[in-house]
Here is the input.
Amino acid sequence: MSLQPILVRSLARSCLQLTLAANFLLASQSNFSLQDTAGKTHTSSDLRQYKATVFIFVAIDCPNSNTYAPILARLYHEYSPRGVAFYNVYSDPSESADAVRKHDSDFLVPFPALLDTHQTLARQTGARSTPEAVILGPDAQELYRGRVDDRFVDFGKTRFHPTQDDLGEALDAILQGKPVPRPVTKVLGCAIPGLN
Amino acid sequence: MRNPIPLSLVLTLAGVGYAGTDKTTATPTFNRDVAPILYQNCSNCHRPGEVAPFALLTYDDAAKRAKQIAAITQERVMPPWKATPGYGEFLDERRLTEQQISTIRDWAMHGAPEGNPKEKPAPPTFTAGWMAGQPDQVIEMTKPYSVPAEGPDQFRCFVVPMNATEDEYVKTVEFRPGNAKIVHHAILFLDSSGEARKKETVPGQGYDCVGGPGLDISGALGGWAPGAEPATARPGIASTIKKGSDLVLQIHYHLDGKPEQDQSRLGLKFSKEPPTKGLTLYVLGNQKIDIPAGDSHYVVKSSGILPMDVEAIAVFPHAHYLAKDMKVDAHLPDGTAVPLIWIQDWDFNWQGAYRYASPVKLPKGTRLEMQYTYDNSAANPHNPSNPPQEVKFGEQTTNEMAFAFVSVTLDSPAQVPEFRAGTRAEFIAAMLENGVDEEALGPERAGQLKLLLNAFDKNHNGKIDPEERQAVVDFLIKRAQQQQHPAQQPPQR
Here is the structure.
């Protein structure tokens, strides 16, 4: 009887280790090859060129992700000179390259948009909503996954001023070689079709 | 919502019959069950060119968002409708039934099936352009107005000449946002004083106005929020536009992530006949607001007595970001309580006029009461100040307001001045019941009120007692009549 909790705990521990190992394996096997709207191919091996790579899952008709366009442009101008790459990722198969190109041009997006037509990247990173930001390191290790900031509180409820700039704080920590303070945060936005 | 038989009723009846015969296999499908709900309640805004960010017309539109639609309707975030059911009965109520909500939920839970193509309803048809038909006059912002990609919401008042050469009687008002992606709501004021024009330093580009147009308005033509249908006045009722008036169009812009432009329009239909009933606003409000920083439950109350018989046709509750609960009631002279509106989760972004399904009769002597509750704590995400600050009455985003604008009709247009004089007299009498608050009123107004108080405070206790009150009211009404008659009606400032 008294052994049981220990057994459970050790089982739990080995499960956790297994999951971590699996995650690591999955991450290190993270393997994508996607085209941007200009026809240029971007692959997982590009990750090695940067200290960190930010993927922002967005959608043309998601107001929540559209709101962030100027904020992300600012983050790009601040962090890209410091070795951080930025991509918009479109994972709704019904969004055409033309529509995406027009959208990102209208919203003055200064970095490339990847067409995740088969939702490969969304599945590999676990992104389920827009706007969900995923930061991967050079070895494809996940460093951050979640919101850009905390302005969205609930469906239809927006904070007057965001109080946490989660994505910016994560990038600051990564560039300083420190652990990300909140490596996973909750995203409030639009569901990526077919993955929820 | 204008069908002779509400579709929701048909659906409910159909649903009851269906559940009775075949309970186990009643998985809802898009074609049979969900599309009619969406077409009736959502597609009017959720279609290309309208305010909603995406369309809800096809199976694909809905299926890819099935779970989100289920969650948002369950929480009643959509369709947007803030009035508590059973607390006032309103026209064009944008509210799903419990049955409709559970149909959407069951459909989403079962993988959002499309269903039998034969059961697919015809897609809804919408009037292109003006919903109420071609207007007699279209009034457009004189120039496009540009907003940046991001930043705080903007509240802008645009002054548009209406070029009326004689008084005009408006039956139908339809506001069309020029750019539906950024226009969040609009309130339509009239100015016959010429003051508004002076405030617009660059013609056509408007001026900042968070709380209101910042002048003594000469009238109003209602408001617009997404989903609102054009309002047509009942027989005998019309809004009067005095000749030479300007439209002051207050627009709330919600920036959407890219630079945008707007040039909104207003369509008016006129009546040749002058109205047979009087139409005016009864303003219930309290400017004595001082909410301590951090106070999560600050209550503001106000009440007023109607000086004559009226019928309430609409109510427009107004506050800024901190209000959470707003309740307005009428207490009739016979003791009956009539609920006028109750909003339990006020959202500044979804304010608008609520029109009563049928006019609410409020006899002379009815006491109107309002009770608004505010949350000035850090836990309120709408709080514009972080950390919270002390908040007082005012027009800025960081100020608060407490108003209920009740649109009322009177038996004849000739009664409007008398009604206004009467409400003003009742308002002043109510103020004097607590003596004269010099600090709140400022020296000039306090001085005038003290003269009045001295004249009618027979027992010299420094305030007007109930038995002294009627004399004050009678005096003020008589004085207003005397001011009105000798010199016709003086032009407003």
Notes: Residues 1-24, 487-493 of chain B have pLDDT under 50 and may be disordered. Chain B has three domains: 7-119, 137-275, 279-484. Chain B has nine helices and 22 strands. The interface with chain A takes residues 53-54, 60, 64-65, 67-68, 71-72, 75, 77-78, 80, 149-150, 256-259, 321, 347, 381-384, 386 of chain B (CB under 8 Å).
